[in-house]
Here is the input.
Amino acid sequence: MGTEFNDALTSQYDYRGLRDAFAPPAMYQAFLDVEKAVALAQGELGMIPAASAEAIAGHCRFEYLDTDRLDTSYRTTRHPLMPLINELVRLAGPQHGGYVHWGITTQNVIQTGLLLLAKRAQATLDGLLADILRHLGRHARTHAKTIMAGRTHYRHAVPITFGFKVAVWIDEFLQAADRLREAESRAFVVMTGGAVGCFSALGREGPALQSRVAALLRMGEMAIPSRAIRTHMCEYVNALSLTASICHKIAEEIYQSSSEEYGELHEGRVEGSIGSSTMPQKINPILCYGIIANSNKLYSCAGMLMASAHRPFESDGSANQMFEDGLAEVIGAISEILVRTELLVRDLYVDKERMRSNLDLSHGAILGEFAMMRLGETLGKHKGHELVHDAAMAAAAGRAPFLDELAQLPGGQALRTEIEDRLETGSTGGICAEYALHFGSLVENIGAGSMPTAEQRNINAYLKADR
Here is the structure.
C-alpha cells in the first residue's frame, strides 16, 4: 500500500513537521546552509575575498533556486550536487561564483547537510520523548498502588503494581535519552576535509576552516574528516533503534494485554473508528501495530548501515548512497514510532478491575514466593521452596485450592491467613509503589533538555526521604 493510502490513515496524527524533515526544500536548504557556512568561514579566514563570501552567503536560500534549471542539470550531469553548485555559481554571479564550494568535496556538503537535518529533527524527537515521559509519569503516579500480576515467561510471577511497570518503562526511556545525547555529540559533526579527508586543497588552513564551519552550524567536527568513517552515524542510528525497542516492547505488551483473554490495557478509542470490514465488533490496536511495524523497519535500516560501514578505501559510492538514503529512512521510521507512542501512552486506558481479577486466577499461588520465604524462616528456604512447590502442583492438578494445600503445612493456617490479608488489601510486597512514585515524580515536569541524571534516578535518596 502506497504512501498516499498510509497518509490518509495517519492524517489525524501530529507529526510536528517531522514528515518534511528530509523533503527536497529542507534538504536543499541544508546543503545551502553548509555552503553558506563554508563561504563565510573562508571569508573570515582570508581564504576567499570577503565580498565573495558575503555574495555567496546571501544567495544560499532555497527560494532563490531555479528548480526547473536544477532538474535539467540533474538529467545532464547525473551528479548529486553539481546542479546545486552550478545554480549557486549562477546566482553569485561571474565576479564571485568562482569561489563557491572552494576546496571541499561533494560528500562534505551532503553528509554534513544530512546530519544537520538529523540534528534539527532530533530536537523535535526530543520533544516527543519528553511528552511520552510526562504521560508515563502521570500513569506511574496514578497507578502506584494498582495491583496486577507480574509475569515472567508469560506466567504469573509475583504481584506488582501497574505503576511499577510504568516506572520500568520510564527508566528505559531515560537511559535511551542518555544514549542519544552521547551519540549526538559524536554523530552531528561537520566534515570539510576535501577529496579524501586530509585537506589536500586547503592544507594547514583546513582544520581552522572546519572548526569555524562547525561553530556557524552549531555542530561538532570530525577529528579527522575522513570520508571513510561511518561508525559515528551507526552509533546514532543504533541509539535510535534502542529507543524504538522500548516503544516496541510497550506496544507489544499493550497489543497482547488488550485481547479479550487479558483485557488489562487498551488504546484510547477514537469515536467512529472501525476495526474490521467484516467483523463489526472489532476495534483493533492500530497504534500498537504501527509502532511494531515501524520498529522492525528501523531495525532493518540499522542493520543495513552496520553491514555497509566497513566499505574499504577513502570513500565508496555504494556506502555513501546507503547512508544518505538510510539516514532519511531512519528519521522517518523513528518519527512514526514516537508519534504513535506519544498518542498511545497519552490516552492509554487501564482496567484496574480486570488486572485484579487476572491476579486472582491463581487463587493465591501468585504469593508462592512470600509463602516460601515465611516457611524458610523456620525450615530453611530450600525446604520452603519444596513444600510450596508441592502445594502449587497439587492445586494445579485439581486436588484442592492452593491456600487449602498451604494450610496443611507446618504453620500453614497462619500463613494462609496472612496471604488472604495480603490479597484483601492488595499488598504486593517489595517497593513497587515507591519506584512508581519516585520515577513518576522525576518526569512530572520534564523538558526536552532537562533529563534527570543517573544519580537522581537512584531510589536510595527517595527511600531515605520517605522515611
